[in-house]
Amino acid sequence: MKTSFLSLLLAGTALVHGQSEWPEWRGPNGNGAYSEGKIPMKFSEKGKELVWKAALPGRGCSTPIVKNGLLFLTAPIDGKDSLLAFDLDGKEKWKVSYAEETPGRGQKVGSGANSSCVSDGKVVVGYFKSGRVVGVNHEGKKLWEYDLHKKYGEDKLWWDQGTSPVLAAGNAVIAVMQTEGNSYLVSIDLQSGDIAWKTDRNIKTQKESGDSYTTPHVVKVDGVETIISFGADHITGHDAKSGKLVWTSAGVNPDNKGMWRTIASSVYTDGVVVVPHGRGDFLMGLKAGGQGDVTKSNVLWRKKYSCTDAATPVAHDGKVYLLIDRGKNRGVINCIDAKSGKELWSGKLPKSASTYYASPIMIGDTFCAPREDGTVVMAKIKKDGLGEVVENKLGQSFIASPIAVDGKLILRGDTFLWCVK
Asked: What is residue 295's three-state secondary structure?
């Protein structure tokens, strides 16, 4: 009885904690989903659902994070890489700026501040296209700063940096994956900024196929805290404490094609890594774990399948929800069983010519998918398909992904943050 009560207590605590925070790009579970909770279906800029609206000092595409009652994001301020904090009433608490930013190449959908922050509750880490990675405490005091480009090699990505830092073994880990330059994982001590370890991840590919804009996820695999990274035609598992490569799988690009850069991140659920690839035309399921090259033993399935190129899927409870972000099937949501790859159902959002660059989230039974045209599409998810669907027009482009805390939906547009409930 004591064990049962303790388990229930801990489960309840985790649930409250999770709904109150969004400490990294894909949320507290790293998969863009909460099993419980509610977010609003209908809202507008002038409606009663709007809790607050805050102006931003410059255009960035990073998704906000929330930790210990503060919202953090990166943005350019007067042409400099900067990190800002807001309270959950939308009031700016502080901002810190560094040296000159490196502007984004893709001005329509990119920026010099694409990467989301990450925080352990004491230190917030920001990462920029310039190669600058910074640590700041929650009061806005600068703690440390690195230029990864000067330290480990130039940025050779064709487009703007996309990966975000993650927490692993108590440190901040950043993945740099590129065809023409040095590729590596680096682990940085949050308090001191010291490099805990750096592991090269140089894999030869055809032209551009080694360029990856994906973010790793950190999970326990075979009892080991593992950093799972997807890029350069491979999925790899590294030990979070040492950086040592534990396992690797090819099979993503069996014909060794060029121009197969990866934007949408893989997702992890029920022990399976589900990998959208081939510019949105292929999907693969890989059992995580093992030792060495696990391509033959661990690839569960792979198929030609219209899925997603830029918008990372949502994963929850053994299922993966894929939003087709562009092309003739734009707006289709497919629900896939992770272990078998079987399509469980398919539904379609309202027709639009605009792309879904933002990665969707799912809170409880509500799916949220912002579009580049300023429309936020909300859909109820039923066991066998889509339920009610609502389009909410806020009139400003959305590239950053949405987040949810305490029943509130927070959205970052080109020049404003919105909070609706």
From this structure: helix
What amino acid occupies position 389?
V
pLDDT digits over 326-337, tens only? 999 999 999 999
Name the residue range of residue 171's domain: 21-420
In DSSP terms, 262 is beta-bridged to 212
Alpha carbon distance 227, 220 (integer Å): 9
Question: What phi and psi values does residue 260 have, to the nearest 5 degrees?
Answer: -95, 50
Q: Does the residue 237 lie in any domain?
A: yes
- For residue 126, what are its two tokens? 């920001």
Total domain count for the chain?
Answer: 1
The structure's pTM equals 0.94
The answer to which of 19-28, 212-221, 334-343 has the lowest mean pLDDT is 19-28
Q: Rounded CA gap, 96 and 84, in Å? A: 7
The residues pairing with 159 across neighbouring beta strands, listed in sequence order, are none
Q: How far apart are CA 302 and CA 251, in angstroms?
A: 8
Residue 9 within any structural domain of the chain: no
Q: What is the arrangement of strands in the sheet containing 171-176, beginning at the earlier edge strand?
A: 166-168, 171-176, 184-189, 195-200
**The pairing of beta strand 366-370 with beta strand 361-363:** antiparallel
| Per-residue tokens: 83 | 């990190």
Q: Write the CATH number for 141.
A: 2.130.10.10
